[in-house]
Amino acid sequence: MDLLIDSFLSAILLIVSLDREMLSVVGVSLTVSTSSTLIAGMIGIPVGIGIAFKSFAGKRLVITVLNTLLALPTVVIGLMVYAFISRRGVLGMLDLLYTQKAMVIGQVILIVPVVATLTIAAVSRIDDRYRKTAMTLGANARQTALVIVREARFGIMAAVIAAFGRVIAEVGISMMLGGNARGFTRTMTTAMALEYDKGQFTLAVALGIILMSLSFGMNLLFHFFQGRARS
Amino acid sequence: MLYTISGLKQMYGDWTVLDIPRLSIDEGDIYALLGPNGAGKTTLLNILGFLSRPSIGTIRFRSRDVHFSEPALQAFRREVVMVDQTPILFTSTVYRNVEFGLKVRRIPAAERQRMIADALDLVGMNRFAHAMGHHLSGGETQRVALARALVVEPRVLLCDEPTASVDAEHQATVMAILKRINREKRISIIFTTHDRLQAVSLGKQMIYLNQGRLASNGLENVFPATLTPVSRGQLECTVQGAIRLTLPATASHRDEKRGRILIDPARLSLKERAHPKPAANRFSGRVVQLSEEKGHIRMVVDVGIGLHLLLKPATYRKNPPLVGDRVDVSIPPDAVRFI
After folding, report:
1. Radius of gyration from C-alpha coordinates of chain B
2. Which of these, B242, B230, B237, lies nearest to B339 by C-alpha position?
3. Residue at A162 is within a domain
4. Which of A35, A55, A82, B221 shows the greatest Cβ crowding within 10 Å of its Cβ?
5. Do residue B88 and residue A141 have CB atoms under 8 angstroms apart?
6. Which positions in chain B touch A143 (Cβ < 8 Å)?
7. What strands lie across the sheet with B306-311, from one edge to the other?
């Protein structure tokens, strides 16, 4: 019990003192997670909108595959990407392994299905009268799609936030593709795992508090946007 | 001619929801599209608004053939605007809602502002310009939807049951707006309703639809009925379980048959009140509604079912009953048609 209380108090002090190593780890985490969320948003949102709008053969199958990909373990993605970017892989010459770029690639694969499926759900929930109204008022197909996306904007924002929440807390991809190199690819989750291995809990607890606070903030935002989407 | 429709059919699988061999609609008039629920009114309105493609058939709009391909339809849609039965406003202000149609037409901002002010003024919603659309009541939403449709100055305004979602006070307002825009702006209006009185008071022309087909009259006096052979040459027709008619049998009526009958309102007549017991096919009831309709007197008599009578004014004036009076109505067998 004493260990927990001591670690917690030391962690608070570490956070308040804005420890450089801690800030570096948080910075890497935020940089990698924000980059992968932005890229996944640029891919997943149009894919989700396209699937929601278009009627095509195999649409249900595509949605089922995307839903299945939601449960893809991070270590499986790590392994797959590793096979491509390792020295002996087809993309080995790009020298991506153990870089932030490799982590971003893995995380994008992880969360594109999250963004796409939640976008499909958000767009599909929009009342069909919006489409009909836009069309009868003279909008072309692109303008009509924009109206629907605008009405679904809170749902789409919620999709992006859910995706960010997923990547900021993942360990497998960061560890396997980033290598946990101090100051370069060490994220909050990989640093926590390392500190635990070393038996030093202060930094791990401090990062845990920051991660939990971030997750809480993300969840608050997610529920805010979901609430707006439903109203 | 505004619309010329030939051989139009709308089918969902094997189910034909609309079948109109020929229909012409004049420019500048107000048309009431009358019919019971499921008659195909909204389906026809969607096709007239170029929002859905018919399964078969051709449409000419202002002497131009309509090709139901997306880029071609957009040009037609810019001349025809439809207002839904329960319109939905974009999640934005009233001003932005009304502005939408102008923006997609690339009308300059200064002109947009003037046109929006005029449109909102027309429907009496100017003071709500900066209110959020989803905070408005049903009647206010309907008026904003009208302003949003009218601001783009369409040739045709299609209204699906324009007063269905508004209270009595706002119904009168909406009707007055429609009359005014037709009179002042010469906008052709086609609206659906199953309210005969509304159709008569607003519409200059009537189109009757029943089960997806054009019908020759307003389809009032259509009731579920059971035909039962009672003797050789005679049938008993039980109408809504409330009244029984005696009708001559035909070869096709050998067994009990359920379906719907149509009683022609123009062939019904008022009779002197019979004492003590009315004769066959005569029913006693109370006058519940009286109105004038295009040179005739429409009377609704509650005889257990609400029977509509369409009387010539001279016939009515001989012995004019008032609302609430008891009268006897005679239904001649040839006024009844099994449909």
Report:
1. 24
2. B237
3. yes
4. B221
5. no
6. 104
7. B269-271, B326-330, B282-293, B296-302, B306-311
Cβ atoms B248, B233 nearer than 8 A: yes
Partner-chain residue, chosen from A127, A138, A151, that has the shortest CB–CB distance to B77: A138
As a whole number, mean pLDDT of residues A211-222 equals: 88
CA B218, B222, B224: angle at the middle one, nearest 5? 160
* Token pair for B183: 């009179």
Q: Which domain holds residue A70?
A: 27-187
Highest average pLDDT, of A125-139, B67-81, B305-319, comes from A125-139
User: Of B58, B64, B48, nearest to B6 (Cα)?
Assistant: B58
Cα separation of A75 and A106, whole Å?
A: 10
How far apart (Å, rounded) are the C-alpha atoms in residues B3 and B1? Answer: 6
CATH of the domain at A181: 1.10.3720.10
Is A149 part of any domain?
Answer: yes
Q: Report how far residue B23's alpha carbon sits from residue B249's, in angstroms, rounded to the nearest whole number.
A: 35
Query: By CA distance, what is A148's nearest residue in B?
Result: B90
Give the integer Cα–Cα distance in Å for A80 and A172: 12
A133 touches chain B (CB under 8 A): yes
State how far residue A143 is from chain B, nearest Cα, in angstroms: 8
A210 occurs within a structural domain: no
Say yes or no: B90 contacts chain A, CB-CB below 8 A.
yes
Between CA B261 and CA B225 the distance in angstroms is 6
pLDDT band at A229 (very low <50, low <70, confident <90, very high): low
CA nearest neighbour of A118 among A156, A73, A146 = A156
For residue A125, being part of any structural domain is answered with: yes
A132 in B contact zone (CB under 8 Å): yes
Mean pLDDT, range A145-173, rounded to an integer: 93
Q: Provide the ipTM.
A: 0.77
Task: For residue B104, give the nearest of A129, A130, A138 by CB distance.
Answer: A138
Residues of B whose CB is below 8 A from A230: none
Asked whether B187 and B158 are in contact (CB, 8 A), the reply is no
Closest CA to B157 of B191, B184, B185: B191
Residues of B with Cβ-Cβ distance to A135 under 8 angstroms: 51, 77
Cβ of A136 and B81 within 8 Å? yes
Residue B177 CA: distances (Å) to CA of A36, B144, B147, B198: 54, 12, 10, 14
**pTM of the full predicted structure?**
0.75
Find the closest chain B residue to A136 by CA distance. Answer: B81
Report the number of distinct structural domains present in chain A.
Answer: 1
- A146 shares contact with chain B (CB less than 8 Å): no
HSE at residue B243, side-chain half, CA atoms within 13 A, is 22
